[in-house]
Design goal:
InterPro entries: Peptidoglycan-bd-like, PGBD-like_sf, PGBDSf. It comes from Niastella populi. This is Peptidoglycan binding-like domain-containing protein. It holds the Pfam family PG_binding_1. It is built from 6 helices and no strands. The protein is an all-alpha fold and about 160 residues long. The radius of gyration is 17 Å and the shape is elongated.
């Protein structure tokens, strides 16, 4: 069985292939789902997961063998990170689904913020506290670095 610390931000310590099971497989399936591949996050590397991996490999001009090596996993992580970051820096005055998503994640991480979709002073203070807790520049804005770390911390919590 895999370590309880596996998450979509952690890299598996093994090559993933049909027959593997665990949190690392589930994290892979979540990532592939975010990239719109047809796979359900069950934690079991089934033929359906293999087909999704094969398609990913073909789409990205990789050797298509259906196995996920550490380098492949890291590439998938980078693609997901690039595709999920809001297309703007979030700060006081912003509103929308991207703001709501960040608020939901911060709330799940036990920060004092409510998901409203509006980036208020309360949201800014939660972001500043998160940045302080994680040794980031404390400007209260959600840039790429802050967003990726919020996602990483949430994934670590989720896969414990």
């Amino acid at each position: 069985m895999v370590s309880s610390k596996q998450s979509t931000s952690a890299v598996p310590y093994r090559t993933l292939d049909v027959g593997c099971e665990g949190k690392d497989v589930e994290a892979l399936q979540v990532l592939l789902g975010k990239l719109k591949y047809d796979v359900f996050p069950s934690g079991y590397y089934t033929q359906k997961t293999r087909l999704a991996v094969l398609q990913y490999q073909k789409d990205n001009k990789l050797t298509a063998d259906g196995k996920v090596y550490i380098s492949t996993y890291k590439m998938i992580q980078r693609k997901v990170s690039a595709s999920t970051f809001p297309n703007r820096v979030l700060e006081v005055g912003c509103e929308g689904k991207d703001v709501d998503s960040v608020q939901v994640l911060l709330r799940k991480l036990k920060y004092d913020v409510y998901p409203t979709g509006y980036f208020t002073e309360m949201t800014k203070q939660a972001v500043v506290q998160f940045q302080k807790d994680n040794q980031l520049t404390q400007d209260g804005k959600v840039d790429v670095r802050t967003f990726e770390l919020i996602q990483k911390k949430y994934n670590e919590l989720r896969f414990k």
